[in-house]
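Suppose a colleague, Dr. K., hands you the sequence of a protein chain of 307 amino acids and asks what its three-dimensional shape might be. Before reaching for any lab equipment, you can write down a predicted structure in token form. Begin with the sequence itself:
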Amino acid sequence: MGRFLPSAAVPGILAALAALLYSCTGGELPRADGGRRYTGGRGGGQESSAQAPGAVPFLKEGALEAGLEKGKVPAALRAAMDGAELPPDIRRGIEAETEAFLGELARVLGEDVYLRKLVDKQHPLPSGYEPGDLIELRYKSYRAGIADTMLLRSKAEEALEAMAAAAKAEGLTLTVSSAYRSYEYQTGSFERWTKRLGLEQAQRVSARPGKSQHQLGLAVDFGSISNDFAETAAGRWVKAHAGRFGWSLSYPREYEDLTGYSWESWHYRYVGPSLVSFIDTWFAGIQQYALRFIHWWEYPEDPAGSI
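The predicted structure, expressed as tokens, is then:
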């Protein structure tokens, strides 16, 4: 940056740098499911309650400010942006306001790690991963599109209910047609799509087991699970208002090369209001760009690393 930062900017940037340094030294990152980190097993598997640090004890006082002046933090940013393959316009926006960006990044890194967990074709979840706080959908303000019992993590269900209640107040009822899917369920789903469409086309519309956001217990499919949803009153309302409740469209139109999947106007992931704001402010509203950047920031030496 070529200058010292104002002292008020340092705490937030310190937290962001702490997460990077901590992950590089074999420490554990912030956890999900009530402050615990999955390390194996199904449902009640082994977990750790270790906290990510709020400070970096091995940095001497004043070292952070000196490092910023020398450009060390911008270098880390550049590496993460390179790894995430961010387009030039997004990179320029981040580089123009690095201090503000790092402050917001610090807030995002302080939240449930699974909200920002990158799950795609290159970054799978463990086969045994199952969220510890799954609850049955309660259908207060929204309704079910299928007869089977559906589950979500509790915080996602609360956000879904809040969003559905707001839609209902405007005369609209949101229909949920898919929510949490286990690794085993996704195995069968992908096999069915492959038999129906062939492997090449199936990979555009269905995730292999372990590579579905639904396994996080944070994603929902609305309506008829077709892009007709985008043209319905409910679809237009969700597109306009989902972010207020912490929901983000995962697979936007014309981004298949980035996400690996064709447009899904019905598929939203709960990432929380802070991360939605981060995505919208710095990543042009594209969830995949933000999650890829965060992943490279947290796993600079192991870009294929997972929780």
